[in-house]
Write a structure and sequence with these properties.
Chain lengths: 345, 345
DNA sequence: GGCCAGCGGGAAAACCTTTTCCGAATGAAA
DNA sequence: TTTCATTCGGAAAAGGTTTTCCCGCTGGCC
């Protein structure tokens, strides 16, 4: 199919530098009007068999493909969705992006991506810029202020959030039920007999961190003490914070994410602290690597591509309905592996 | 800056559903012609101070942003670059994408992304589709046939490859010097005293695998035997292939990639085989996780974002020069960590 | 004081596609 | 044979921006 087009172009001797052929060229070549070419290609209205054949032949011969800018201009829509992520190096966001991209592709949409380099200040502008080109924008774990997000929602017609949910933020969102995840972990550790555990905090500005805090408050009780240590969201942060965690004399470490947990695990290994013998360890997210390290990491599994697919569905829904602050919640599952055990007594 | 625009829009009471304001609206608001508005915004020609002030005020009040489709239509260029990756879940490709995106952003370009789901058959069509929208397309580790690539180069004006280089493929490329990397690993293992090592093969269709094969042929010699075992490119493949590798009675395993090596490491751990005590292990790429596992992985470090940046530079260069089959080679560095040691004798 | 140069600004064309509107032609029915 | 209905196809407008072309005005120089 496509090879006809390519070969046709090659046969004409037109190099890739030659200006792309337009619908008018095709029309002239097929001795019909541009309107007829458009009709054949879009199937809007029936065209006589003879003309259709001529048009298809001309299209193949010239390697014609409609100019999307012109289509976009006319339709007022670009068939493109934008995704803003804090950091493409982070597999979590890459997976969400993949989920969006695959869903978009299936609907014949393109995906524009912007990487803000973890700078919260860049998120607003990136989204605004993307919204010029895209019909809608997905914000991945945005750290921007409530105020900025509200402004943005006002400027961008079809805005969706992943893992960010605010009261009074009228933005459709798909969120992981962090509270349920953290609760499962707490319950698991308590049932194992832990009485004093340490939690390594993520970035304060992250909405997901605040959600975790709510769950921690609910879970802490007499006989189950939770000590907090500031940390961050990367494995390097975890590696650095491990010593402070040890100093708390807790028997288990709950890390903000798998990433952080892997950093902790590496540091504990360096220090000769056995996991789970001397110290239990849990993560969050279930990234691919977590089942490949030793011991395999007890964590909470989130289907990240699914988050992306849901975000796409919110986008698709926003075409029909008005802009409703619809929320999809994805509940993660506790995966008990080898990094947790009862405390040494 | 941006908040003026947003607030202006909010102040007018125009919801996000209202049609976007056009240059004509701004012109009417500022009591000038559309041409003047364009000139103020682009700085093409000087405009009197008074008019300029009026135009800027109107732009802010209406929250006007030029329609990129119209600009693209007129300029014949979209200020967009496309990137085709086999799998966004693979951090290697995500990093390359990040490199391209960041460089593009700096030049005020947008980035379109397509994920082919590791299906070689989808690459050609994805690239062709992206080329409709983008001014150029970067192909990441394409597995398509030589023939398909040649066809594609003919149809897409500004095509660049990452980690794919063919004689007679007139496509600018940035490639890792796999042969140098594999040679370093072989030399390292031989110096440690290994005499019989196993290589876990990657996908046959991958160009990088063929480059590795050339280096292996050059390195194999009497007294340094290289046994090959088919494997694949994922950690799951490595996990599966570990048993076959053990059966070869080699003293070291060279994996196709870090990913594969991590799978091997996990399997060896399950089997109670000590690394590097009983078996040495090497990877390729130096992904983030490789310095976090225990033992830390001896590997070859490739700066993946740099690959992306170089791809961008090739794109930028292709604007000036004609389409030359320029090639940038990035030489990776051997990183000796804890997973290699002398063989047990 | 008159003429020329230069500058600022507006009108309009061009970019490419889709879609509406209308005309023409063909077929059937009266 | 005439008329109406139906169908197919072409002409043209619209969509938003940039840029060229041209006009008018002002300032300087002779």
């Amino acid at each position: 199919m496509w090879c006809n087009a390519a070969m046709g172009r090659a046969r004409t001797g037109a190099g890739p530098r030659s200006p792309r052929s337009t619908i008018t060229d095709v029309a002239r070549e097929a001795a019909v009007s541009p309107a007829t070419v458009s009709r054949v290609l879009s199937g809007t209205k029936p065209v006589s068999a003879d003309r259709e054949r001529r048009v298809r032949a001309a299209v193949a011969r010239l390697g014609y493909r409609p100019n999307p800018a012109a289509q976009g201009l006319l339709r007022g829509a670009t068939h493109t969705i934008g995704v803003v992520v804090p950091d493409l190096s982070n597999p979590y966001f890459a997976e969400v992006l993949k989920g969006v991209t695959n869903a978009a592709e299936a609907a014949d949409f393109r995906t524009l991506v912007a990487d803000t380099g973890e700078k919260a200040g860049a998120e607003h502008d990136a989204a605004l810029e993307l919204s010029r080109w895209a019909d809608g924008v997905v914000l991945c774990s945005p750290r921007m202020s409530h105020w900025e997000l509200t402004m943005l929602a006002d400027a961008v017609a079809r805005l969706m959030c992943v893992n960010r949910l605010g009261r009074g933020e009228p933005v459709p969102a798909v969120v992981v039920d962090f509270e349920s995840g953290v609760s499962s972990i707490c319950r698991h550790l308590r049932e194992l007999g832990h009485r004093r555990v340490v939690y390594l905090r993520g970035p304060n500005r992250a909405w997901s961190e605040r959600a975790r805090q709510r769950a921690l408050r609910a879970a802490s009780a007499p006989g189950f003490e939770i000590v907090q240590v500031p940390c961050g969201s990367s494995s390097v942060d975890g590696h650095r914070a491990a010593d402070a965690a040890l100093a708390t004399r807790a028997t288990a470490v709950m890390a903000f994410s798998d990433y952080v947990a892997l950093g902790v695990l590496a540091r504990l290994d360096e220090l000769g602290v056995s996991v789970p013998g001397d110290m239990s360890l849990t993560g969050f997210d279930d990234i691919a690597m977590s089942s490949l390290v030793s011991p395999r990491l007890t964590t909470v599994a989130v289907d990240k591509q699914r988050l992306g697919r849901h975000a796409w569905q919110l986008f698709a829904a926003s075409a029909a309905d008005g802009p409703g602050g619809q929320v999809v919640t994805v509940t993660p599952d506790l995966i008990i592996r080898g990094s947790t055990a009862g405390p040494v007594t």
